[in-house]
Amino acid sequence: MIGKLTGIIDYIGADHAMIDVRGVGYIVYVSERTRMALPPRGEAISLYTDLLVREDLMQLFGFASLLEKEWYRLLISVQGIGAKAAMAILGTLGAQATGRAIALGDWSAIKAAPGVGPKTAQRVIMELKDKAPAAMELGGSLAEAVLDTSERDEVIENDRPPARKAAPKAAPTAHANAEAEALSALQNLGYSPTDALGAVAQSAQDAPDADTSTLIRAALKLLAPKG
Question: At what angle do helices 212-223 and 174-188 cross, to 10 degrees?
């Protein structure tokens, strides 16, 4: 199993890229969001990968973060969701927003992905809602695939130098950590994973830049008994 590739961008296609790893070119299919974030040809890149093997087909899919890869694996476990549909969902929403949509039961957001119909979108919600809390908790620890400076320089030196030196990717946003920490805190207070996830997802949607304590307070208000 190929779990990660680090190499040089050879070219970028409509839904894939070729990564030159010490003279071997790997065609890696990526979501639209990941494709748009790829560096230019000739620069170093590191992607987490998942290999799809069928009788007549082998395809390598690439992900900018382990969280994106985790959601891909969850999505393809749903009946009617293949690799293409899973990448379409992640390309439309991104990993974090996919988790929030599932937590909130927002099947219309899932349906917005090309090729995903309403029945399939509803099935995604039904089958993954109970699995979403674990994935969201991972969001705080699954860092983006940032190519370490020394590793990047080694790749560039040993393969072929790019036209300009690649800049490091941005570090993971603090908000991913805030959502995961808020979810964990609510579960420690005795709320069920599903209830806690729904409240945190709604709070994060209402206040995208909220820190952990703000998310916890907002979620607690949503979870408070009504009346």
Answer: 40
